[in-house]
Amino acid sequence: MTDTGVSVSTGLENVADLEATLESLLSVERFDPSAAFTRRLPMDADRAAAEADPNAFWARKAEELLTWHTPFTQVLDDSNPPFYTWFADGMLNLSENCLDRHVAAGRGERVAFHWHGEEGERRTVTYADLLADTQRLANGLRSLGVRAGDVVGIFLPMIPEVAVAMLACARIGAVHNVVFGGFAPSAVRERMEVSDAKVLITVDGARRKGRTAPVKAAVDAELGDLPALGHIVVVSGPGGTGAPMTAGRDVWYHELLATAAPDCPPEPLSAEHPLFILYSSGSTAKPKGILHTTAGYLLGATYTHRAVFDIDPDTDVYWCSADVGWITGHSYIVYGPLSNGVTSVMYEGAPDYPDYDIWWRLIEEYKVTVFYTAPTAIRTCIKWGARYPGRHDLSSLRVLGTVGEPINPKAWLWYHVVIGGGRCPIVDTWWQTETGSALISPLAGVTSTKPGSATLPLPGISPALLSEDGEPVTEGTGILVITKPWPSMLRTLYKDDERFVKTYFSRFGPSTYVVGDAARLDADGYFWIIGRIDDVINVSGHRLSTAEVESAIVAHEAVAEAAVVAQYDEQTGQAIVAFVTLAGDRSGDEATEAELREHVARRIGKLARPRRIIWADDLPKTRSGKIMRRLLRDIAEGRELGDVTTLRDPAVMAALTAKVGTAR
Ligand code: WT7
């Protein structure tokens, strides 16, 4: 147990000193909140209230933190599990909560986003600016025929227009479906097609490290013939390339705004009105359309953003380095921070452009106080070296956060020492696309932290561990479940209630949410997330399903069969390894390997490209023909093979082992 104070910030100039400092801290099991950290929000009352009566606690928070048109009288309806509703008879508008109420309170000139472009451009977007654009775009969308309940696709880079697009949908009750900008247009097509999107909002071109890719043209080629898609709205992005426009269907974003009426009163919507769909990978090739609704989701994002990071909207400058295309961006770049009325930094570019110090340069320039990123990013920064953050004054920072995957203690300590100067609490926030907001996490400055542990449930949240046969585990390893509904939980999978029930609520009954992670509980009741127990791979905090990657690979004409597994990777947490059997007498060479990787990038996106392709004459299968991925994982990670007795043909493994053994 230690208060690490500020004495550890010395090793920055000297690599050996830093190594020694980190080494010496590795034996520290627990970091108590530093005496130097002054928390701004009290939390004891919340904990006590939530323990006494979680529903009453959530009801009070919903009244305190959200602005309602019609107050709710009903809190949780659990009469039809797992189809829960929260605050169902209340009416509100989410964009009003994120914009109008701040402007009405005289905070219209407060900066919502300090946007920083890849080439160093700066744009200051105030709450009043956001409100003005949101109203015009909302009217513009209506003029294109969008009505409450219609789906609008959003495929945009990290520019303020992405927030405007989301808020404009929320203002008129349209359901947004954001696709991460790094996904391939064919993945956009799939997501638009299954959700019957009426309109897609995209960009002419997107910049990445000095190069601009034509987005709209690629979108046209893939989506041009979708029958439901009536219009494409095109933002002229910072990479401004111009774009082919189809008359009658396509419209420039700036022209739509210029001709739209400036006022669009927020439409009062039911608390359970659908807010967005976000596709995430599951254990089959078909991505899951996770559906969130209005009030419960907003409450989760607003409350946890405030409580976990100890946010004071009047003084904090907040920065979450994620992309809006992921749930982290939805909850902790757009909805949580805007609902709380905070000033944020939004950065367009990559962490290594123009140089490896860009993030730290931005923290210094905007005097960021709260910084939220992913373990994989921290490990990459460690690789680049402490000299890059060492060039900048990071003394404005007071709270650090991580999300996406378990953080290894070494990376936690580096973050603590090099970025946090030993004085900033680290909040390791565990949650999922499905949970809408963080569920297990320290409260900055309140919870004692242990490097690698997401620590304790947040107020109002009831996680537990179960054994394979459903017995409670009070200490040790088990299957992570949530035993009580919480406001920001997903409501269903879009148009697929059956898969919703089957995926999350079948194993231990209809009122126990099965997370899909294994975890360990220690003697202090701290949760340590181990990782996924389904066929989901976590690459740099991004979820990919083995089946999805396999079906992309198999779609290539040269491939007969493929099996995809995860391999431990120091940088990305996990990396994709594909075992591929080629068709006919094609042999695996470098050219074919490059072709396959490119093929996967085109079908899903670059992040799904296999790190390694291993050519296999045959794949290990059970007698019933099921591929034994467990054994392939052993091979990929160079481990002793597990049980092979159920294999149809054990010789297959011998051949593979011999091959990989020599290839490495
Ligand atoms: C999966 C959810 C939540 C936004 C980012 C990912 C893993 C997430 C942590 C953490 C250990 C974590 C879990 C989870 N995960 N945060 N702090 N510690 N693991 O959202 O794509 O829905 O993935 O990410 O395995 O189930 P997602």
From TrEMBL:
GO CC term, one of those recorded: cytosol
Enzyme Commission number(s) from the entry: 6.2.1.1
Pfam families referenced in this protein's UniProt entry, alphabetically: ACAS_N, AMP-binding, AMP-binding_C
A biological-process GO annotation: acetyl-CoA biosynthetic process from acetate
Source organism superkingdom: Bacteria
Domain Acetyl-coenzyme A synthetase N-terminal: 46-98
Residues passing through the membrane, by range: none
Keyword flag Ligase: yes
Domain AMP-dependent synthetase/ligase, first and last residues per copy: 102-486
Record bears the keyword Acetylation: yes
Alphabetical keyword list: Acetylation, ATP-binding, Ligase, Nucleotide-binding
MF (Gene Ontology): acetate-CoA ligase activity; AMP binding; ATP binding
Domain AMP-binding enzyme C-terminal: residue ranges: 548-626
Similarity field: Belongs to the ATP-dependent AMP-binding enzyme family.
Name of the protein described by the UniProt record: Acetate--CoA ligase
Species this protein is from: Frankia casuarinae (strain DSM 45818 / CECT 9043 / HFP020203 / CcI3)
